[in-house]
Write a structure and sequence with these properties.
Layout: H1 8-19, E1 24-25, E2 48-50, H2 55-68, E3 72-75, E4 92-95, E5 102-106, E6 111-114, H3 120-128, E7 132-133, H4 146-152, H5 159-162, E8 169-175, E9 181-185, H6 197-201, E10 210-217, E11 219-220, E12 224-232, H7 235-246, E13 254-259, H8 260-269, E14 280-288, H9 290-303, E15 312-313, H10 317-333, E16 340-343, H11 353-367, E17 370-376, E18 381-388, H12 393-410, H13 429-432, H14 435-448
Parallel strand pairs: 2-4, 3-4
Antiparallel strand pairs: 1-2, 5-6, 6-10, 7-11, 8-9, 8-10, 12-14, 12-15, 13-14, 13-17, 16-18, 17-18
Bound molecules: flavin-adenine dinucleotide.
Length: 461
Amino acid sequence: MGPFRRLGAAGRRELLSLLGPDAVLADPALLDPYRGDFGDRSEEPPEAVVFPRTTRDVQAVLALASREGVPVTPRGAGTGKAGGCAPLHGGIVLSTSRMNGILEIHEGGARAVVEPGVVTRDLREAAEARGLFYPPDPASLDTCTLGGNAATNAGGPMALKYGVTREHVLGLEAVLPDGRILNTGRRTLKGVAGYDLTALLVGSEGTLAVLTRLVLRLRPRPRAVETALVPFATVEAAARAVPRIWTSGIQPRVLELLDGGALAAVRRRGAVPVGEGWGAVLLVETDGEPGGCREEMDRLLDRVADAVEAPRRSRDEGEREALWAVRREMSAAVKEGARGWSSEDVTVPTDRIAALCAYVGEVAGEGGLRVAIYGHAGDGNLHVNLLYDAAAGRARLRDATERIYRRTLDEGGTLTGEHGIGSTKRAWLPWEQDETALGLQRDLKRIFDPKGILNPGKVLP
Ligand SMILES: Cc1cc2nc3c(=O)[nH]c(=O)nc-3n(C[C@H](O)[C@H](O)[C@H](O)COP(=O)(O)OP(=O)(O)OC[C@H]3O[C@@H](n4cnc5c(N)ncnc54)[C@H](O)[C@@H]3O)c2cc1C
């Protein structure tokens, strides 16, 4: 990889003439926000940020960068948590945020065709207005983009029932690092022609191609939703309830866990009353037909009968939204007041959640760190936050994090359930994948990007 060339004044001038002045940001005073995301930031700002409006614009930028050997870092909304859009080697940040058209919603074909910069909630609302449903719902859905979701294969609470973003991407248009256009996949719900390049590009974290158009699967919109908050005395008790649900015959659409540390943040914010003696809660949702999903919720709650108090069920949309507001704010809320933290995204088989939570408590205790765990317990994906209040905590964080990674893998889990490897977990990928798997991925990277200019420093060590 590299050495990379600088864009320089001549490169900036060429970008301006290719895209026009309102699509190129080159004033050093304005480049700082483009140094990264919620996970990592580059030491230096990029040399320029470009905001293409068309696939042809993207082609032009990549052709220039490829010719000159200048790195390009794709960016959506910059809500990532693994440093994926940090321009670690400088060069150009290519933001697809202004390519934000919903080009087609096809009720009969159950699909949408969109540009990558569409904000996830905007597609959800547009689909709902047509009686359809786009389920992938990262907690950042008010700001993140569909291109970013596809590039990270984003999950979210509803992945439990409906699957992650990959299950909803039928086809893609993408621009390869040398400027060629690649069309993958299909517009039909089924299709098995050739190798599945769509599946390869989804989750490739902007390292293989820039996504410029997405064909997305839509589903029928459920007519009713039931939501309940189930309190438990301890996080282990809540975690033990999760596998019991699998044998209830009911598929919840959401099964989220908040531990004691996360509940402390809820208490501080005061939006929802948290009972004395609550050590953890499960937030559960069923959907479907009005009577049916209520009955399903009744049966499901019978399965988690060792709750410390009667479950709270939302009586109307207002109460439901209040419960969800708490969950969506969790990422910021748990960090309030802390001097520093790490926020992990580990995932274990659901019957190992209780063991992992207990281990995290142990490790944090030994390192004098605070813990807040929340996340998508239904698919074993836990956002483990380790926090410290005094400067000395920083040194202990890395050791604690590595011990948690090791234990996650020993439990049969993975280092990242949805945020991606990016730059932040790159050094540890070899803990999870062997040399054969890593070598094959390096070969793939070379085929797509022989000059290594696209998002260098990410995913593969
Ligand atoms: C409060 C909060 C809650 C979150 N909750 C969740 C959650 O529940 N589930 C979840 O999965 N994630 C979650 N995230 C992480 C983040 O929102 C997702 O990873 C999201 O998919 C990133 O989208 P983005 O548009 O912000 O992409 P960015 O952060 O800008 O980029 C992410 C990656 O995608 C690449 N990329 C972006 N656009 C393109 C493109 N057009 N072509 C090629 N590559 C591209 C970038 O290079 C980078 O590697 C959360 C983040 C926050 C801050």
